[in-house]
Amino acid sequence: MMGPLLVSVYVFVLAAFLGFELINKVPPTLHTPLMSGANAMSGITVIGALTLVTVADPSTGVILGVLALVLATINVVGGFLVTDRMLSTFGGRK
Amino acid sequence: MTPEEITPLLALGSIALFVIGLKRLSKVRTARSGNALMASGMLLAIVITLIEIGLVDYRWIAGGLLVGGAIGYAIVARAQATQMPEIVARFNGFGGAASALVALSLFWSEVVEPAGDGTASAVLGGASATTLVLSVLIGSVTLSGSLIAELKLRGTISRDPRIPVRGVLMGLFAIGGLALGGVAVFAIDDPLVAAALVVGLVIAAVVTGLMLVLPIGGADMPVVISLLNSLSGLAAAATGFALNNQLLIIAGTIVGAAGLILTQIMCVAMNRSLVNVLIGGYGGVAAEHGEYEGVVSADAESAAMVLEAAQSVIIVPGYGLAAARAQNAVHDVAKALQARGCNVRFGIHPVAGRMPGHMNVVLSEAEVPYEMLFEMSEINQDFSQTDAVIVVGANDVVNPAANTDPNSPIAGMPILDAAIARRVFVIKRSLSPGYAGIKNALFEQDNTVMLYGDAKEVLDQLATELAAGTS
Question: Residue B237: inside a domain, yes or no?
């Protein structure tokens, strides 16, 4: 049996391989949108923030969590929108 | 199946959407749908998390999502098309900051505020405490580095100040910050002392990020920006370890790996190693650029007369094009030449501009057709049969010294062979050196004519002159 930490390490290593394989040949045209989209994906930290702001009492910990939630949501919503806006101007697609 | 079994399965669906979306994002034809798939994967992840949280006080959650969503939407909606690269850098910083703040929130909520006896490692476990520190470090570096990058892209910071022994200083701050964090979570029982040390970690990390990006300029910027992109993913992954959340680990790590690949592509395009870019810079050789001799300059009118007769023209854009917001002007010149039956193409160096793919984004904003944009490897063999090359705001990426002078600091860097075209026009403000700080032999060649001035003004004049002759 694997402990939860070891499972996480397995997941980490396999995800790293997946990431490397996923992005091997990208046309330069897409470098900026790819970065932008990947960055929006790193806003996944939003779900971590959600689990930390579940009480109404505004302690320092909760306030830090709310700040995280706001910034992560800006990153997610803005990041996917800005990627879409950039890709929409990539006219004359081959 | 119980709800406890269903949500992890749904989380797998979210990961699948991320993976397929990212795959599609890396191909031009499917990129837009790939982005939409990734966005829906994110929405699914948020919904799953809300289900898992169960019945709690939703006020902060609802408020945070609404405020963040509204601000994110407003930033993109209000931005001008030319500001996209700056905004990408800003969001990257926010992502890093959010991951660091999640880790800090965890630390305060679980360790500082309960104020029990015991270190963070005793409360959270050693692995969680360690990755918490890493998340704060990486996230804070990402924040300060990305914000400096944004200011540089915007032109607010236009200098690249050199910091002496920067590599050593950066190492000291990063390791010092880690040491503070390590002591805070492993050795200190008193929560207030631990909290103070963690604040010290944040400050050290912010300074590290500032030093990482502040002296960077020119073709090194794309390397650093893609590295920051990778770091924002790794910060999320570290947060995932701290919270023991697999979805965060997977998504964050994929972003981290993808960012590293992009960083590697940028380094190869400059024939330099990442360490060399981050620590070495071109610092030592800055004073070596000599005086120029025999440089010929002309005005737009006489340049237009030469271009009128050209059958083939390649335009080589660089950061100067973006800085002068001259993308529409260059498209006008291209259209005027095409109206005369000239074959016009754009030759784009992989590290032209300040971020990966910068020129492609800038030109697509001006609706330059994608078919006119060519990569270095696709177009380099055509320069010798080209009547005229127009270099707009580029310098080091067309410097023939990279091929001819083995002692040049940029020796071995792949360049666009603009120098072997029949005529070369260089639109530039002055003869000042590029980021590499060296003289460009191209400017002295017999077939090169300098067109001094602001890129947008010169291009507008060229377009007017060229259009005037046709009608």
Answer: yes
